[in-house]
Amino acid sequence: MFFKRFRSSPNRSRPTTDAEFVAAYKATGNLDLLGELYERHMELVYAVCFKYLRDEAESKDAVMQLFEQLIVDLKRHDVINFKSWLHSVARNHCLMHLRSQRVRVGAGGDADSLDEDRPISEMLAVWPDEDDTALDVERHLSRLPDAMHRLPDPQRVCIDLFYLQQKSYAEVADLTGYDLKQVKSYLQNGRRNLKLILQK
């Protein structure tokens, strides 16, 4: 695994369950304990990050950043189910990362483009506002896959490629076989339909 393996000194009363590791870390602040706990779930964290970021290097970076985040967050929260909580933290981290990114400018950059310099959050009109809580973020995210599947195939495919995978107009056209005019039409209609679905 790409993540550095954490080791701790021998201890006769070492924690065994996730809950015991959490309690021990919160009581001692021992990073070796947190590292060992985190290592148990790194594959899950990486899988979650890759699902949303779609990039191996960015996903690996996110795994490292999340460990640093846990050093502070785990002390501030009462965590009952660490695995479930960590999954939510990883997912929210990726959402915030995506919100901060800009959609790549398509080849040609014509003036009729769909505001491709705006954040993905604005383009899809499904992401939460800055003041939303982590629960709000998860709620928005949980509704997106179902809403996407309810779109006509051409719209769903184009939105996935252009907004989520950040392909240019030309790349979407090459991958789908649609011409540029069709791609832009499917994106416009797909965005509008997606917003309508999520507002119901």
UniProtKB/TrEMBL annotation:
Keywords: DNA-binding, Sigma factor, Transcription, Transcription regulation. The keyword Thylakoid does not apply. Residues 37-102 form the RNA polymerase sigma-70 region domain. Residues 143-194 form the RNA polymerase sigma factor 70 region 4 type domain. It comes from the Bacteria. Belongs to the sigma-70 factor family. ECF subfamily. PANTHER family: RNA POLYMERASE ECF-TYPE SIGMA FACTO, RNA POLYMERASE SIGMA FACTOR HI_1459-RELATED. This is Sigma-70 family RNA polymerase sigma factor. It comes from Fibrella forsythiae.
